[in-house]
Design the sequence.
């Protein structure tokens, strides 16, 4: 009898875990649909290209938007999100970034990254040179 109860418990626990994983994946997919990786990559490439000599900009943008396999990035992001965030957090992210305010914020994210990236790069280079 103990074995039957134990097996029933294991079955219920594994079903519950599978359901939560499925719900987490659905929430992460909803987030990724609200914040398409291809749009983010394209926006970021255009803004980052401003840091590159003008003669090389078009090639850089073309490389970033045609040669980068967005589906691989999306798959990696989906897996990482499901492993990292709770269901509640994933739903909150999907809700926010799916809203008008969230979409507006994401539309500005590439510009933001392009503005902050030079400072990040300078600080990293400074820290590396001090370590040497």
Sequence:
């Amino acid at each position: 009898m103990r074995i039957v109860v134990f097996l029933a418990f294991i079955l219920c626990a594994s079903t519950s875990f599978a359901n939560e994983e499925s719900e987490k994946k659905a929430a992460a997919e909803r987030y990724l649909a609200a914040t398409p990786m291809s749009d983010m990559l394209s926006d970021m490439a255009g803004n980052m290209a401003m840091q590159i000599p003008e003669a090389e900009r078009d090639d850089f943008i073309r490389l970033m938007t045609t040669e980068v396999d967005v589906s691989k990035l999306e798959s990696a992001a989906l897996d990482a999100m499901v492993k990292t965030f709770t269901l509640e957090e994933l739903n909150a992210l999907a809700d926010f970034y799916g809203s008008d305010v969230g979409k507006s914020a994401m539309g500005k994210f590439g510009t933001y990254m392009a503005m902050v990236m030079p400072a990040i790069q300078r600080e990293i280079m400074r820290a590396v040179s001090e370590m040497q």
Notes: The helical segments are 2-34, 37-48, 54-67, 70-84, 87-98, 100-107, 109-131. The chain has one domain: 2-131. The chain has seven helices and no strands.
